[in-house]
Design brief:
The structure is a single chain. This protein has 17 helices and eleven strands. It is of the alpha/beta class. The chain binds flavin mononucleotide and iron/sulfur cluster (SF4).
């Protein structure tokens, strides 16, 4: 099935213009939401659709919204996570740049459902163009009465603000994002309490990914059953797959969840570059365990990828062919996490740097016997013990690259050379 939901209009010129967006049915879902449903009914609709968060963990969106305490007496905030800094992930960016009103409409409906009157889009600092596109679109939405006071003549008010980050990967982690939004250093907070209860300015706050929120207008307009019929039973809807690496046609592809990795790579992305074979795939952004070529029949949905020992995560699919040195690849990835660790937790701050130093030596042919075991030991001590999951996100790939490509690592140590590139 080749149904498109989020990208269905992206071929239309000038889609960023509000008039063009409206001419394609844009903001009809908002009208419907405000005129036909009470906020609690929208939460119920989103629950029934089965929508799961697209930011990484796949947490059910309607359930998360249901955690906001009723009548706490405090304002409720919605923060759209547009930080998109995970290496290999570039799917939120196309929504922001090509169809910003889809995201804004989703934000307004979601905010209405949550009883929120001030929403934020926290956007990665490097997305200078995207921030400009969003600000222009928000201005248009205000001028048409979709934002501001008494939206579309209802009693509902909402303001929406774009906040630019300053270039730290950790600010994509939801509580670091909140700290950053409050003007502080982007350090993750200890949980619980979860942001739905105590979030921005100590008030109930929902943080959702761009792609998650962009699905909401479609769910409201076409109904939860329509949405739930796309994809697989516990993994409904489509997914934006950002495919990079050694395929002939890299790019962002939208398919129902449950498409296989084989179909994605070989039917839609044109297969591997001339004369090369598939060697490995990272299915969900650089922080998830790598899959080997013989796992290419895995279905791309949260549960199937987890069963195969990895994670669908951000659906940033990084494809590597047989010219790839896996030692070099993971050394590069680990350098990123060592640089981006915020430093609060010892295991993460020291562990990422130790791993990088050892991997760097092994890659350069200066590794020592026993160092693979040391690396695996460091990985073990970095997992599930820290304030946020960045430590796990750095350890899991290292563990999986070593386990799946042990011989390559060993050859770097024993033969002091790379068996792939011969150096
Ligand atoms: C280190 C780190 C970086 C993250 N970066 C992002 C990001 O750039 N965008 C995003 O949506 N979620 C990111 N997340 C996940 C968020 O913490 C959060 O779970 C997500 O925004 C929730 O949205 P969802 O429920 O719609 O998936 C990151 C998590 C971690 C631990
Ligand atoms: S796990 Fe790493 S990034 Fe997360 S809070 Fe601890 S030190 Fe910071």
């Amino acid at each position: 099935m080749s149904i498109k939901v989020l990208t269905r209009n992206m071929h239309v010129p000038n889609l960023r213009n509000i008039g063009v967006y409206e001419s394609l049915g844009g903001y009809r879902a908002l009208r419907k939401a405000l005129s036909e449903y009470k906020p609690a009914e929208i939460i119920e609709i989103v629950k029934r659709s089965g929508l799961r968060g697209r930011g990484g963990a796949g947490f059910p969106t309607g359930m998360k919204w249901g955690f906001v305490p009723k009548d706490s007496g405090k304002p409720v905030y919605l923060c759209v996570n547009a930080d998109e800094s995970e290496p290999g992930t570039f799917k939120d960016r196309i929504i922001i740049e090509k169809d910003p009103h889809q995201l804004i409409e989703g934000t307004i409906i979601s905010a209405y459902a949550l009883g929120c009157h001030q929403a934020f889009i926290y956007i990665r600092g490097e997305f200078i163009h995207g921030a400009g596109v969003l600000n222009q679109a928000i201005e248009e939405a205000y001028s048409r009465g979709y934002l501001g006071r008494r939206i579309l003549g209802s009693g509902y008010n909402l303001d929406l603000l774009v906040h630019r980050g300053a270039g730290a990967y950790i600010c994509g982690e939801e509580t670091a994002l909140l700290e950053s939004l409050e003007g502080k250093r982007g350090h993750p907070r200890l949980k619980p309490p979860f942001p739905a209860v105590i979030g921005l300015y100590q008030c109930p706050t929902i943080i959702n990914n761009v792609e998650t929120i962009a699905n909401v207008p479609h769910i409201v307009l076409h109904g939860p059953d329509w949405y739930a019929a796309i994809g697989t039973e516990r993994n409904t809807g489509t997914r934006l797959f950002a495919v990079s690496g050694h395929v002939r046609r890299p790019g962002v592809y939208e398919f129902p969840m449950g498409i296989t990795l084989r179909e994605l790579i070989f039917e839609h992305c044109g297969g591997m570059r001339d004369g090369h074979q598939l060697k490995a795939v990272v299915p969900g952004g650089s922080s998830v365990p790598v899959l080997s070529a013989d796992q290419v029949d895995v279905k791309l949905d949260f549960d199937s990828v987890a069963k195969a020992g990895s994670m669908l995560g951000s659906a940033g699919v990084i494809v590597m062919d047989d010219s790839t040195c896996m030692v070099k690849a993971i050394t590069r990835v680990t350098k990123f996490y060592a640089e981006e660790s915020c430093g609060q937790c010892t295991q993460c701050r020291e562990g990422t740097e130790w791993m990088y130093q050892i991997l760097r030596r092994i890659e350069a042919g200066q590794g020592r016997d026993g160092e693979l075991e040391v690396l695996l030991d460091i990985c073990k001590s970095m997992k599930a013990l820290t304030i946020c999951p960045l430590s796990d996100a750095a350890a899991m790939p290292v563990e999986s690259y070593i386990q799946k490509f042990y011989d390559e690592f060993e050859a770097h140590i024993r033969q002091r050379r790379c068996v792939v590139n011969g150096r």
